[in-house]
Amino acid sequence: TVFNDRHFSCENCDGCVGGGFDAATSQIVLCQNNIRRQSHMNRVVTHELIHAFDHCRAHVDWFKNVKHLACSEIRAANLSGDCTLLNEIARFKFGLKGHHQTCVRDRAIRSILAVRKVSKETAEKAVDEVFDACFNDLEPFGRIPHSKADAKRAYRDFQNRDRYTANL
């Protein structure tokens, strides 16, 4: 069960980060001084909820295992909308073939460097080692939600996931 006043916190943050997931308190922090648009907040909340999901499902060792962190960052960048075509155009990054994967990889490395004091090479190596498995892990959505309609379809699929096997 999620309680807004317990699991979400709005704070002023340093730098230009939009938010974070605090594993110690199971709390999502939204950086109110860095979020200017509803669409940005939606992406940040989704990104951090994926970290919360991974924390509960996979028992991620956030501080000692950089591969665990890399996997969750890959999943969050892939599934949150961070790498949509419109967001990439707004960042002046263009490309078609394999661009989504490149964006996910780059954003995962960037996120690791923002939260851990590791070298860029260490972050890149961790991302490369787990990329395929983590990029293809689409839970809890079952698909990459590219639009609101996709997100609604994914949620409907999630609600009905046991419907056909419940009577077996």
TrEMBL record:
<keyword id="KW-0378">Hydrolase</keyword>
<dbReference type="GO" id="GO:0046872">
    <property type="term" value="F:metal ion binding"/>
</dbReference>
<protein>
    <recommendedName>
        <fullName>Mitochondrial inner membrane protease ATP23</fullName>
        <ecNumber>3.4.24.-</ecNumber>
    </recommendedName>
</protein>
<dbReference type="GO" id="GO:0004222">
    <property type="term" value="F:metalloendopeptidase activity"/>
</dbReference>
<dbReference type="GO" id="GO:0033615">
    <property type="term" value="P:mitochondrial proton-transporting ATP synthase complex assembly"/>
</dbReference>
<dbReference type="Pfam" id="PF09768">
    <property type="entry name" value="Peptidase_M76"/>
</dbReference>
<keyword id="KW-0482">Metalloprotease</keyword>
<keyword id="KW-0645">Protease</keyword>
<comment type="similarity">
    <text>Belongs to the peptidase M76 family.</text>
</comment>
<dbReference type="GO" id="GO:0005739">
    <property type="term" value="C:mitochondrion"/>
</dbReference>
<dbReference type="GO" id="GO:0034982">
    <property type="term" value="P:mitochondrial protein processing"/>
</dbReference>
<dbReference type="InterPro" id="IPR019165">
    <property type="entry name" value="Peptidase_M76_ATP23"/>
</dbReference>
<keyword id="KW-0479">Metal-binding</keyword>
